[in-house]
Amino acid sequence: MHITIAETLKSLRAKRGNLQDALAAHCGVTSQSVSKWERGEGYPDITLLPAIAAFYDVTVDELLGVGEIRKQARVRELLDRERELVRIGDTVATLAHTQAAYREFPNDYQIMVSYMNAMFCLYQPDIEDEFYHCPEIIAVGERVLAGCADDELRWSALQMVCCTYAAIGQRDKAREYANTAPDYWVTSNALLESVSEGDELLRQTRENLACQAELMYGTVRNMLRAGEFSVAERICALETMVGIFALVFGGDDFGFYVTRVIEFRSELARLYATLQNREKTLENLGAARELTRSWDETRPYTHTSLLLRGCEYKPEERFGTAQTERERYAALSEDAAFDFVRGAAEFDAVRGD
Prior knowledge:
Radius of gyration: 27 Å
Distance between the termini: 50 Å
Helix content: 55-70%
Strand order of the largest sheet: 1-2
């Protein structure tokens, strides 16, 4: 058990406003001893704990930080359960769980960001207002950004706050928050790459490469959504992205990023269907189906492709959805765009399980 008495003693003294000499006199020890306790260079004798607790009018458990230790154990338990719900894709249960966790620990930043993410990822078609959770996402996110010092949690909150403001049409507010983010060229990942060497540099460059592929995915997706591109241009852009991902991930070593390639292939199938191109439609449907199987059946593993060798992938860290990728593919295959090949033996072969 990690004893936090050093931090607790400093905090209690700051709140009370006493000098170390006062506690030393109360306990019958030297002020140097108290100074060592606060620096974490030693602990008070166990027989002194009741006297110290009485001096500050706290319990011995509070003095030892037992309450905080129990709290963190409970927080870890709640976050572990949330990750399991995310892994199986139950977004409704994830929201209920994180909402209850937030009520239990309304000031814990890890819980707050988990709650935001559950609201952000949930889609409820039975709710007429698709922005039902937006005010709560923004309120919780702004609390995180105002008080949290953890860069990773702040970044997650910032992303969701920006996207939520944009979703409800407050784009000026979204831009205001987006402008507080660090410039792309001076991210911590880029800096770590520039100051690393040997095995550490190799690991960092591979992790950065995966991040850059993800960045390209989002940028191309937004570009196609924003501009007026012909069907042929959209096909070209998506096939280029399929090629880039195949290069980076060695053809089939996608891990989490297989969901991106499934998205590319699914959209390519729809686009080729609009052109009534039977061969390319079936080819991309078949590719999406095989990738879907690899995603839903994936277990933790380490990448083996040349450019990402050694990078670890843990499925439990993925974002969950209300559907498995296999269910999404089944829904895709029912799209009316594929009616022109429906009923053909080739279509039945790639339709799904």
